[in-house]
Amino acid sequence: MSFSNLGLSDKVLAAVAATGYTTPTPIQEQAIPHVLARRDVLGIAQTGTGKTAAFVLPMLTILEKGRARARMPRTLILEPTRELAAQVKENFDRYGAGQKLNVALLIGGVSFGDQDTKLTRGVDVLIATPGRLLDHTERGGLLLTGVELLVIDEADRMLDMGFIPDIERICKLVPFTRQTLFFTATMPPEIRRVTETFLHNPQKVEVSRPATTAVTVTQLQVPGGREAHQKREVLRKLLREAKDLKNAIIFCNRKRDVAILHKSLQKHGFSVCALHGDMDQSARMAALDQFRKGELPLLVASDVAARGLDIPEVSHVFNFDVPHHSDDYVHRIGRTGRAGRTGTAISIVSPADQKSITAIEKLIGQSIPKAEGDYEVAASADEDSHERRPRDGARRSRGKAPREREPREIRETRPSAAAPRPAQAATPRPAPSPRNDPARTEQPRHEPRRPRRDHDNEPADHSHLPAFLLRPVRAPLP
Ligand code: AMP
Question: Which of 64, 96, 299, 469 has a CA that sits 20 to 30 A from residue 357's CA?
Fold first, then answer.
């Protein structure tokens, strides 16, 4: 099958050829003809399958005819996070270079006024996070009655982030006769209900079973000790000794730990950036950009980066913390081994994580091999001590012995006797849905479902604050 058989316009085919893609991915092959036939589509596909182009390419073809009117976008794409929204815009910029389309982003953390000006000029494609979109409609600056095509992307992520009520509100603001394209990696009951309510006789397109891991990703686990500083030491050892490490995303469960680990790795001389939901939009974009360009080859991130971000050629993923939710594991390690490339995912496992690992192994239908080599680290004093000695400037300024420092670049391939010798992951077999996974219900939800706007992609982590600081305070009257 080639792209030219799918019904795409000549302009779009030329843009695809310019990117160098010759064969459509399975989701593109299956979805594009239905989108062009103006059918509703229910796409069950993970990121990394080429699903963005599966809706961007036919949308570009459809949009060649017609013009946008002020404040009335012709098409609307809903994304759960700002980064994903920005990424979809990049796809429009890339494939739509030959067309004069107005593409606007409505995401939090960016000036309202600038967004409003863009809307006034007329928008062909509006890419938005739900909260900011509703803010604009409530202010009267945006009318959704002209939307001919609605895309709801990463719907299960929207569910996790508490956006489903917002999505339902938005669906009621767009015309009943619109075409809807709905993408999700998994089909929990709440998502099924939404699809039954808002899709009209959809064409179902499924490209891979939910919650399976790519066979191109080699998975490993190493013991991490009970304390955070032990895990940091294990991580440094892994980074220094990993084979073919070009770049890596290192996942933490909490934003606070992202900041601590980022600082620690910097202190040890690694070239590293960080990404979590407490950072402002420009800092997040800057970090992603530096990582994408390879200027900073290590990215410490919370789960906000786990889903959907298209960063091609990530060679390694490290789980500094084992995720509490098994499906987060699948999404995290899905950042590597994309589009048929190989990748390595290594999880640092503390004794307390054993239950989570068991649940993950059950979900992915395979056991995660233990790395060969000695990774035990003694539970000695923490030489990083960001958490325990925050004001101990004198001790910190003494720093580490020079031989323990790492050069400001991650080292190139260096075979080592202690280097983990990965065992190739077995072919995944069908796994239970993450939301039916009994192990999941035993776990406290680390990121509780919550109705939120897109001010942030994660809940504020107040766990480190004393309770009295969290009590509401009544402001004095002026
Ligand atoms: P996505 O699932 O949309 O995040 O896409 C994953 C990656 O696959 C992105 O880097 C795309 O640029 C790439 N991609 C999309 N379509 C194709 C294709 N037909 N052939 C090769 N790579 C593709």
Answer: 299
